[in-house]
Amino acid sequence: MSESVFPDGFLWGGATAANQYEGAYNEDGKGLSVQDVTPNGGMGEITDGPTEDNLKLVGIDFYHRYKEDVALFAEMGFKVFRTSIAWSRIFPNGDDAEPNEAGLQFYDDLFDELHKYGIEPLVTLSHYETPLNLTKTYNGWTNRKLIGFFEKYAETVFTRYKDKVKYWLTFNEVNSVLHAPFMSGGIGTPPEELSKQDLYQAVHHELVASASVTKIAHEINPDFKVGCMVLAMPTYPITPDPDDVMAAHLAENQNYLFSDIHARGEYPAYINRFFKENGVEIQFAEGDKEILKENTVDFISFSYYMSIAESAHPEKYEASEGNIMGGIKNPHLEASEWGWQVDPVGLRLVLDQFYDRYQKPLFIVENGLGAKDVLVDGPNGEKTVEDDYRIKYMNDHLVQVGEAVKDGVDVMGYTSWGCIDLVSASTAQMSKRYGFIYVDRNDDGTGTLDRYKKKSFNWYKEVIETNGGNLK
């Protein structure tokens, strides 16, 4: 056992999203969200209403089984648990005059259950769960009215849970709106018809809303810690050709735009050329600049699954499969069963780069391996999954987090994605499993929903017990 390099108080835990695991899509007054009409994943077809083939309607039935699951998280030793509040559970249509008390009570009960075991909630306000009515009536975040709806929703939950939740995130993977406008921004316009003007105006509305609710949060409870959440994806030039290096640099700036504004409070100079060359003129309302500047985030959180490569001539190379953010395949890296390239060193790179750029605490709130797990009989007759591949993936990534800590980076914590199996956001499959806990549900909707501990369950428990001292 090596001596841990992770700081005392490091927040170890797991991460989930309401739309991927709660189920109960129409119970206790909940309204429909964009997820209830995308049975094939967030970038797939949009249906007129909920359909039986949409696994997210049931998820893993966490809504009714949360006590059982929280007990398992506690057994692993979680210090923190990341979940989201389903916006349409609180305001079923998004623009309702009054909140839904049954929805508020559910999260009261969940947070109480977490605190019973000493687990700190980390709560995302909007995790790909825009109320469907806000899409149909207002075309999502293209409409500035959503800022007011989001402020009302945020103020409601901040006030309700001011003594139960300390850590908040505004928008999940906010930069993904550039590639998944319906899932990420509730924008109903088909992507091929969506102008850059409308898209980046929607981005502006989200960024102003994020800063505004950060202000509201700090007014309600000055001890609140509010972070942004971006999809982090280091971008490498495919060759040392300066044109390829520049192509990678420009691609990376598209992602930095979001964290730059959240952390620095203003639009960076580099984006002005892009806006000019693409006919984009962001419409600022009175006070927008001040709201952005005066309400920067307390910390930066991010998801990390892969890196990508770029070239000035991408047509010469093979595209990176399964990656919603584009890019070309890196020949030096292996890939998961879904084509996501595995790059542990890229995680250290992201941590170093973000900390150099912002000097703000960082929180890894998603990282994990989606794989086709097979349930087998364990040595004592119990069912389990021999997921050594997941243990290796996570060990190698956490070793690089430790390297970043040694580099001097202030890392607050790590919540592995899908700590319990849930429905995939990108493909809406159950078979793309991330969890330490296997849930008996199949892609066709069959299964008992019973829970079983995978081999990685006890491995991660030891990681937490030793504060990372068992990593190799």
TrEMBL record:
What InterPro entries does its record include? GH, GH_1_N_CS, Glyco_hydro_1, Glyco_hydro_1_AS
The question of whether Kinase is a record keyword is answered with no
| Family annotation (SUPFAM superfamilies) | (Trans)glycosidases
Record-level GO cellular component terms: cytosol
Give the GO terms filed under biological process for this record.
carbohydrate catabolic process
**Keywords (A to Z) from UniProt:** Glycosidase, Hydrolase
A GO molecular function term, named singly, is: beta-glucosidase activity
Catalytic residues at E366
Give the highest taxon in the source lineage: Bacteria
Positions in coiled-coil regions: none
Offer one Pfam family short name for this entry.
Glyco_hydro_1
Which family is it part of?
Belongs to the glycosyl hydrolase 1 family.
Q: Do you know which PANTHER family this protein is assigned to?
A: 6-PHOSPHO-BETA-GLUCOSIDASE ASCB-RELATED, GLYCOSYL HYDROLASE
Q: What is the name of this protein?
A: Glycoside hydrolase family 1 protein
Species assigned in the record: Aerococcus agrisoli
